[in-house]
Design goal:
CATH architecture of the largest domain: Alpha-Beta Complex
Strand order of the largest sheet: 1-2-3-5-4
Distance between the termini: 47 Å
Oligomer: single chain
Number of domains: 2
Helix content: 25-40%
Strand content: 5-15%
Length: 299
Amino acid sequence: MTTGSVTDARPPIDAALVRRLVDTQFPQWAGLPLELLDPAGSDHVIYRMGEGLSVRLPRHADAIGQARKEAEWLPRLAPHLPLAVPVPVGVGEPGFGYPWPWAVSRWLDGEVATVEALGDSPEAAVELAGFLTALQRFEPGEIPAPGTREDLAAQPLAARDRATRAAIAEVDGPFDTAAMTELWEAALSAPDGDGPPVWSHGDFHTGNLLTVDGRLSAVIDFGGLGIGDPARDLTIAFTLMSPGSRAAFRAALGVDDATWTRGRGWALATGLNAYVHYAAVNPRVAAQTTRQITEALIG
């Protein structure tokens, strides 16, 4: 028998638990109907509550800081961004055996963006470039000094070196190992930009974009929000866009060669990580990450 720490465990989450947590801590919403959102991603269990709210509970310890981070920053970011973002309206506390903070946010209507709908759209690509430009320019009254806010410290690309090289070796066969290694080494050696660190979403891929009537409407899931290399958010160019729309996106952002190469590295690293962990058991993830890795290699 093996044992793990409490933070390694994935607590059971069902509608009865969510009902008790909400009714006890937010009695103003007691009794509102709950509807499980499925699929909801790997980090949270999400319930729609009534017509206008969502309840998000972390599945694992790596996601437990998101509720408070989003509650602190998204209300300040929202007025400055050209697409809607989730606006938290409450942070719940542990209870009834559930060990972590959880969140209630305004519900955002929409469908998850797809390559089929938007991949060839230069208009959507330019709109996403505008969103990133606005995010990078966001300056709250007090920008946290480097080293003072661990939850906002964006991980550097080099921190993924060991895991990425291991993943490259593991997927030898489905993908071109030599080409992946060449791209990865180029991304690691690409110089950082001269400008200061900027705000980034941190997990900017197709699954975190919503559309209404075929148009982009919202960006969700800001658990990776941080201050660091803008190349992190270029992953969207390789998860959503075709070469033509990708060129429009790059031109609208004004991305230099070094930053673009680092962005390809981020797309490769995150795509490989998801592929080795989920592709064998999830055909949807397999297809998405195969495309992401392939497009990153194309550039």
